[in-house]
Amino acid sequence: MAKTASRKNLYPDGKNTDLVPRRVLMCTSEAVPFAKTGGLADAVSSLSLALAKLGHQVKIAMPRYYHIDCGALDKLEGAMGVPAGGGEEWTAVYTAALPGSGKKNPVLVYFFDHEAFFGRDGIYGTPFESDFRDNPRRFSFMCRACFQLCRKIDWYPDIVHAHDWPAALVPVYLKYGEKYGVSSESGSFAETKSVLTIHNLGYQGIYNKDDFFYTNLGWDVFYQSCFDDWNMMNLLKGGIYSADKLNTVSPNYARETLMQEHGFRLDGCLRSRARDYRGILNGVDGEVWNPARDKFLPAPFSAKDPDGKKLAKQALQKRFGLAEDPEIPVIGMVTRLSAQKGIGELFGPGYGSAFSICRDMNVQFVFLGSGEPWAEHEILGLSSRLANFKAHIGYSEEISHLIEAGSDFFLMPSQYEPCGLNQMYSLAYGTLPIVRNTGGLYDTVEKYNEQTGSGTGFMFDYLSPSAIYNTVGWAIWAWYNRKDHIAAMRLRGMKQDFSWDKSAREYTNLYKDALDS
Ligand code: ADP
Questions:
Q1: Which of the 8 DSSP states describes residue 229?
Q2: I want to staple 337 with a disulfide (CB 3.0 to 4.6 A). Which of 48, 375, 411, 493 is the partner?
Q3: Which residues contact 198 (CB under 8 A, 6 or more apart)?
Q4: Does any ligand 1 atom lie closer than 6 A to the CB of residue 338?
Q5: Are residues 245 and 381 in the same domain?
Q6: What is residue 192's predicted lDDT score, i.e. its pLDDT?
């Protein structure tokens, strides 16, 4: 039995008495500031902090990748053995408090330090090997190590919360093994329930069936848990069939993924779990993304005191070598360059709309991002040919903040978008999103109505170069001809509440439902 007697102690200040505090172990391959390739890393850390603020006791377990400096971490005494591949692998475990967590109820992060699996550049792969050949082995190890960690630190969670395909074996190990394991005096996993969050259904962890060997699970589990995917092994699918509760990161994306168009071949599988599946919108980390306290900006600003935004725009134009003109609308974009983000329709050679937007409209366009080599090449080409299109290829926190703050519009023509963070950052910074009507973009952006002036951004339904061109044209028309509407929309956007507190309460309910199931 998990120790219930100590649950009372988890109320930090006697507050939140309406919530039953839980012990939650987050199992993840990414968490900021330690490892990040996308929104997953932001979501895991912010959610953990918000849950801890509500009174839950939260720990995070993840790999110690090569770039995470051991010197800044504390080492737990003794190595830890993890069953793997018919034998056992040994790992050192490091720990550190998650930056931003309170002293009373800190979120502790535990790192598995296994040289052969994680002592290399790259989280999932490198530019030369986009998906490491031994990823099934590396992440099976990570998932199994989560349970060993609990034994090692003598702390048994109420909820194991797995994130995306790398952690999808966690619910499987719980359901088909750990739940029935030997109880120690201090606890066991017998009462523990699992939650699996799908941050992006486009990534499922599909590997050769032979790699199932590394999971140390029997073939009966392979078939019962439906890992089978046209004679391959689909890790996320196995997790979906094994988790007690499932969610994704916005209500609209939850609906979309039940349908064929956005279901990535797992829509049927999700439909079969529809009773246990819901959408919970991600939040925004208000400590990091707040124009009133943003250390990357030349001056703070807010809805009440918006003047600093003009300085941010000037700094952005200067930084990118554009004419420093407050009257010209600036369109910003920060993104991974992957097909999901609509980059074909925007930058596709000879047909993408970015070129004609910059050629035909009196705008400036700033771009930050990296990814698909063809797109990087194309964007650099545009940058050299057009005076009003400038790009920085690479990753930069500082520039991303400057773009959010200094732009007038933010473009996200995504094919699909589970939640999307940048449109929420944009709203908070008084930058109007231009988005496709999909996933979390639908949940967070209200379409402009030019009759009434209502809305918080510009939206189109079907993704094509001309749809992007026309919608950007619509926004630029409003900029020059409906200045009052633009000002009102900005204010409306800045007043929206996308705090993690709200999402954390919804996750609390999800945990409750999992424990009641
Ligand atoms: P996804 O997770 O699909 O990439 P999200 O919008 O959910 O998309 O989250 C992306 C996160 O990564 C945001 O915080 C965004 O600002 C950040 N990001 C993406 N590319 C870059 C970049 N080149 N430089 C700085 N931040 C970036």
A1: E
A2: 375
A3: 164, 236, 240, 246, 247, 248, 249, 257, 418
A4: no
A5: no
A6: 96
Question: Backbone phi, then psi, for 213, in 5-degree steps?
Answer: -50, -40
Which of 44, 282, 334 should be mutated for ligand 1, with most atoms under 8 A from CB?
334
**This prediction's pTM:** 0.91
- Which residues is 229 bridged to in the sheet? 232
* Angstrom distance (rounded) from CA 153 to CA 94: 12
302 lies in some domain: no
Q: What is the Å distance from ligand 1's center to 46 Cα?
A: 15
**pLDDT of res. 129:** 86
Alpha-carbon distance of 260 to 75, in angstroms, equals 47
332 touches ligand 1 (CB under 6 Å): no
Domain of 119, CATH number, reads 3.40.50.2000
Q: Both 403 and 269 in a single domain?
A: no
Question: Is 295 contained in some domain?
Answer: no
Residues 249/281, Cβ–Cβ less than 8 Å = yes
* Same domain membership, residue 504 and residue 483: no
Q: Tell me whether residue 153 is exposed, middle or buried, using C-beta atoms within 10 angstroms of its C-beta: 0 to 12, 13 to 18, 19 or more.
A: middle
Specify if 288 maps to a domain.
no
Same domain, 508 and 487: no
39 lines ligand 1 (CB under 6 A): yes
What whole-number distance in Å separates Cα of residue 207 and Cα of residue 446?
40
pLDDT score of 1: 36
Atom nearest to 199 CA in ligand 1: 2
Per-residue confidence (pLDDT) for residue 262, from 0 to 100: 93
Cα distance between residue 107 and residue 60, in whole Å: 7
Per the domain annotation, does 324 fall within a domain? yes
Same domain, 341 and 396: yes
Instruction: State the distance from the centre of ligand 1 to the C-alpha of 371, rounded, in angstroms.
Output: 11
Residue to probe by mutation, ligand 1, list 46, 395, 443, most atoms within 8 Å of CB: 395
Q: From residue 237, how far is each of 87, 208, 232, 246, 418 by CA, in Å?
A: 25, 14, 11, 12, 17
What domain range is 102 assigned to? Answer: 7-283+500-516
pLDDT of residue 7: 39
> Which of 391, 390, 403, 398 has its CA nearest to residue 429?
403
d(CA 199, CA 247): 9
Q: Are 121 and 78 contained in the same domain?
A: yes
Tokens at 452, concatenated: 């009434």
Q: For the chain, list residues with pLDDT below 50.
A: 1-17
Q: Alpha-carbon distance 297 to 319, whole Å?
A: 12
Tell me the CA–centroid distance for residue 39 and ligand 1, in Å.
Answer: 6
The pLDDT assigned to 21 comes to 81
250 and 222 share a domain? yes
Whether the CB of 388 sits within 6 Å of ligand 1: no
Asked if residues 183 and 53 have their Cβ atoms less than 8 Å apart, the reply is no
Contact of 249 with 418, CB cutoff 8 Å = yes
Q: In 241-373, which ranges are E strands?
A: 245-248, 277-279, 330-337, 364-371
As for how many domains the chain has, the answer is 2
